[in-house]
UniProtKB/TrEMBL annotation:
Subunit structure: Homodimer.
Record carries keyword Oxidoreductase: no
Protein name: Myrosinase 1-like
Short name of one Pfam family: Glyco_hydro_1
Gene Ontology biological-process annotations: carbohydrate metabolic process
Gene designation: LOC113494400
Top-level taxonomic group: Eukaryota
Length: 514
């Protein structure tokens, strides 16, 4: 009891000091009101058991269409860039797998819903396959079977009291649009908005949380330096054209939702942003680390979430200088017009955060090459990303450092004016073995940081484990897995089996405690 009282007193004094800080700032008054309500609710529902998640906090799991659906050529489905890539360049996928059948969720969606139920989930995040719903890529043909599949999934989830969180686009562009330049062509803004309009009109009556575009950073930066379809070797130009087009496409879709659907459905839209936490390797690396935040995170978040909008100023100048020195006549990162800045700024109702790991950042030494993701960051920024010796390293890009997640959450909360942060992905890549006690520890320790951040007033409303079940992990094929359930990919029935982590997570969702 004493401990409990002490914690309440500590919590109140933390809030009192926040109140003091914000008191003189009238712009912050709305936030203050929210914070007070939040504190009262938090103490009300969780005060007696400090390690308990509030009842309104949503636990979920996620997947994406190409990674789980299979049925790549069933009915009138069109070809996506992944169908095309894995059939024309099978050698680029580790182990030679592809998503032709994957988890066969197109046929086994009832079992997927059952797993969500077993896990006690509040939400299930999945994506819609553009080429399944619109076989030509355009709204001239809407597939009846595609429509039925997603209607069944949404209705089936709702029947079990599970809220669908729907991603409109998750890396699987129709090949017909790729043939015209895909995300590097500014016309993609209209193609995407037309597609999104079909999606909202078909499913908007039952879906509140929307993610327009999944991880634009990886969509653009992963495509051009060779680790996602369409697998282009164009690190200098394509990624920057895509960067701007993806933001404008998201913004146009958001504005279209405002005009046509918001008054009827009152949904919440955002795009999901992948954030690594970057920690400077030494105090001398602080400046380059800040620039790295702008390069990776700011380039996708600043135009939407900052008050002023547009590209991060220092970074835009830095990239323009690079382009000039390299002999280009225009900046490689296309400038925004002032109309575009206004169009894009503020197009969010919540922040959809995808966080997996942290990296130490330092400058490359003379003659040194970045062994990992050589083109992300190192060519432009001259940096290297590493693990800290004290972090548990899982592979060459991934280490467990939950404190980095905590820092990330606080950074977001202080950098942008956010009313709601929803974690739309968090998970750990391990081998396909069924035993995954390390995954249990990963989720436990990252959830613990959320609890602490909630105590500090960070407005986090949900957590989504990546991923519901093992699936096609892009160019890593089936060699690396993130699933709470394992899937037997040699069994035609694609039998799903709960791992230790699934049992752990089901206990968390049931007890709301770690
Ligand atoms: C985020 C992506 O959205 C998802 O498709 C991918 O499988 C995970 N990262 C793990 O790499």
């Amino acid at each position: 009891m004493k401990v409990y009282l002490k914690q309440i007193v500590e919590r109140l004094s933390r809030y009192l000091s926040k109140i003091k800080t914000f008191y003189t700032n009238s712009v912050r008054k709305m936030y203050l009101a929210g914070l007070v309500v939040f504190s009262v609710l938090f103490v009300g529902c969780c005060g007696s058991e400090p390690l308990r998640f509030p009842t309104w906090f949503k636990f979920g799991a996620a997947s994406s269409a190409y990674q789980v659906e299979g049925a790549w050529n069933v009915s009138d489905k069109g070809e996506s860039i992944w169908d095309y890539l894995v059939h024309t360049r099978p050698e680029i996928v580790a182990g030679g797998g592809n998503g032709d059948v994957a988890c066969d969720s197109y046929h086994l969606w009832r079992r997927d819903i059952q797993m969500c139920e077993e896990l006690g989930l509040d939400t299930y995040r999945f994506s819609i396959s553009w080429s399944r719903l619109l076989p030509s890529g355009y709204p001239n043909i809407i597939s009846e079977d595609g429509k039925n599949y997603y209607n069944n999934l949404i209705d089936g989830l709702l029947e079990k009291g599970i809220e669908p969180v729907v991603t409109v686009h998750h890396f699987d562009l129709p090949q017909s649009l790729q043939d015209l330049g895909g995300w590097a062509n500014p016309l993609i803004v209209d193609w995407f908005t037309d597609y999104a309009q079909v999606v909202f009109s078909l499913f908007g009556d039952r879906v509140t949380y929307w993610v327009t575009i999944n991880e634009p950073f990886i969509l653009c930066e992963g495509v051009f330096p060779l680790f996602l379809a369409p697998y282009y070797d164009d690190p200098n130009i394509g990624r920057y054209l895509c960067n701007k087009n993806v933001l404008v496409a998201h913004a146009k879709a958001y504005r279209m939702y405002d005009d046509l659907f918001r008054s009827k459905y009152n949904g919440k839209l955002s795009l999901s942003t992948l954030f690594f936490w970057f920690e400077p390797a030494t105090p001398e690396d602080e400046e380059i680390t800040d620039l790295m935040f702008e390069f990776w995170e700011g380039r996708y978040a600043h135009p939407i979430f900052s008050k002023e909008g547009g590209w991060p100023v220092k970074l835009e100048k830095n990239l323009a200088d690079n382009a000039r020195m390299e002999g280009y006549s225009h900046p490689r990162l296309p400038p925004f017009t002032s109309e575009e800045i206004d169009l894009v700024r503020g197009t969010y109702d919540y922040f959809a955060l995808q966080h997996f790991t942290s990296r130490l950042v330092r400058r490359l030494r003379p003659g040194e090459r970045n062994p990992m993701w050589p083109l992300i960051g190192s060519s432009e920024m001259g940096i290297i990303m590493e693990s800290h010796p004290s972090w548990v390293s899982v592979n060459d890009w991934f280490a467990i450092w939950p404190q980095g997640f905590h820092k990330q959450l606080n950074w977001l909360n202080t950098t942008y004016d956010l009313k709601e942060i929803f974690i739309t992905e968090n998970g750990i890549p391990l081998g396909p073995d069924v035993d995954d006690t390390l995954r249990v520890e990963y989720h436990r320790s990252y959830l613990e940081q959320i609890l602490q951040a909630l105590h500090e007033g960070v407005p986090i409303t949900g957590y989504t484990a990546w991923t519901l079940m093992d699936n096609f992990e892009w160019v890593s094929g089936y060699t690396v897995q993130f699933g709470l359930y394992s899937v037997n990919f040699t069994d035609p029935m694609r039998t799903r089996t709960p791992r230790t982590s699934a049992k752990y997570y089901a206990n968390v969702t049931r007890t709301r405690m770690l």
